[in-house]
TrEMBL record:
InterPro entries: DUF924 (IPR010323), TPR-like_helical_dom_sf (IPR011990). It comes from the Eukaryota. Transmembrane segments: none annotated. The lineage of its organism: Eukaryota, Sar, Alveolata, Ciliophora, Intramacronucleata. SUPFAM superfamilies: TPR-like (SSF48452). It comes from Strombidium rassoulzadegani. Pfam families: DUF924. This is DUF924 domain-containing protein.
Length: 131
């Protein structure tokens, strides 16, 4: 199974790996136990992955799958809003940084997502990497 298929498809075995290895970390986010990660380049990305992606695997089929969305959304918004921070991420990392915007039902977040992705595409096109 490809990485993309594993990541974006329902796979009980993959879910179990994430539950066994990361559920306790996800559960510690609301207490602020991982707040120091927000000050680190890859810490921000890790928090977004925990709260926006891994939570969906760990709580698949439950409303709890979305209970950490506000945490990932806040980090995503602040990262995208800072060109100094956002520009330092690789393209594939930027996709995950912006995923909470995609998952948001707020129109302003959807608009921010589209303008961010349009800028990313323009950058890739300018560098000849859009193929």
């Amino acid at each position: 199974m490809s990485i993309q298929a594993k990541w974006f498809k329902s796979d009980p075995e993959f879910d179990k790996v994430l539950i066994d290895n990361f559920k306790a970390d996800i559960e510690s986010v609301p207490s602020g136990a991982l707040d120091s990660w927000k000050e680190d380049h890859y810490g921000r990305l890790a928090l977004i992955l925990l709260c926006d992606q891994f939570s969906r695997n760990c709580y698949r089929g439950s409303p709890d799958a979305f209970k950490f969305d506000e945490h990932s959304l806040a980090i995503s918004q602040s990262t995208v809003a800072s060109p100094e921070l956002f520009s330092k991420y690789k393209h594939h990392e930027k996709i995950f940084i912006t995923m909470p915007l995609m998952h948001s039902e707020n129109v302003a977040n959807q608009d921010l997502l589209m303008s961010t992705w349009e800028a990313m595409l323009a950058d890739l096109t300018q560098r000849g990497l859009d193929q």
